[in-house]
Amino acid sequence: MLDLGSTQLTMLWASMVLGVVYLLAAVLPSVGQRGMSWALGPRDVPTPPLNALGGRLDRAWKNFIETFPLFAAAVLLETMAGHGSGLAPLGALLYFWGRAAFLPLYAIGWPVVRTLVWAASLAGIVLLLIAVVPGV
Fold this sequence. Notes:
136 residues; mainly alpha; 5 helices; elongated
């Protein structure tokens, strides 16, 4: 895997790549269902609804973009703080692998497991925030 000097920065890079996967997973069904003229047009009329899978992939993408800025900021803040807490690598790994598992789980519609995986990724962000505190 790419070595950026720390697990946290490597997981930040990997999460950015994962974000592109999320984006494509949402965009491709949207364009496929709504058509290229919709995708290229001004979208002045109400957006046609997506089927169940397309809707789940769109919601997964929106969920990713809600959590990724918090993760990115936590990684950068923890890196700048330089405390070297053992919680930081664990937090970064939890976030990345939780988000990697979340997309297919959401796509297939596993509600409880999906929520538990989402909670694990959120726990990763919390661990990164705790790691910023000196002495932790």
